[in-house]
Amino acid sequence: MASDLIAHHYLHTTPSHVSHPPPKPFSTTPIPPSHFTLYTTTSNKTVERVWLILHGDEDVPNPSEQMYALLATPALAGNHRKLTVNTYDKRIVQWAIGIGNRAMRVDLLYEMVLKPEGIKEKVVKGYKLGRGESWFVKEFPAMAGIVNVGGEEVWVVMTDGQEGGEGAVVSWMTVVRSQDGKRSYVSTLETKESYRGLGLAGMLLTGFLNGEKGEVWLTVFCTNWVAVEMYVKLGWRTKRCLWFVGHGGDEV
């Protein structure tokens, strides 16, 4: 599964992320779930949003009891109305929806996996594939931590720049690798709006996959039919579903 890689990505999404160890009774479960909280200030004195990740590969016993115990920890106390939960356990979804504040958003993501064997690279005329860590850090300074601290790779598709220009980045993705190199996780994949529908995302993915040996994971909202169809055609298959329950209005 990609639980650890997903958590790794979000942990470095912004400098204001703070990781918290599992409190009791979570620490006594067979596989303690990972979780962390997100603050808008580095001082952590003003909590604007709380982000909770539950990525246990087995069901959490007595979820309501344990979840309320989690809410009693200093980081989360009094902030459950701004809680966002990601979980594979439907019982926790039901708990999250009914914690005293109507859920503003409930979504389902597919966690998909691909073993890249025999992937043929797709090329779109007028564009070229490359690496773009320095471009990403400059373009998205608030997200620089996923590269500078998290060590994520950045793959880009650029215009070929044949008319004397340097070439502009029009599609990009970030990738997290496991320490043993046997798994990777496509953490983001974006194409500028005016360049969508040209096959650039497929060029980006197949260019990255060409030569990959380990499993490649990703998550995608099930309602994003265009992306789901592309991933399935390239060989990705859904391994399990990840529920997203958000509170807090505009912040979700």
Automatic annotation (TrEMBL):
Pfam families linked: Acetyltransf_1
Domain named N-acetyltransferase: residues: 133-236
GO molecular function, one term: acyltransferase activity, transferring groups other than amino-acyl groups
Name of the featured protein: N-acetyltransferase domain-containing protein
Organism: Choiromyces venosus 120613-1
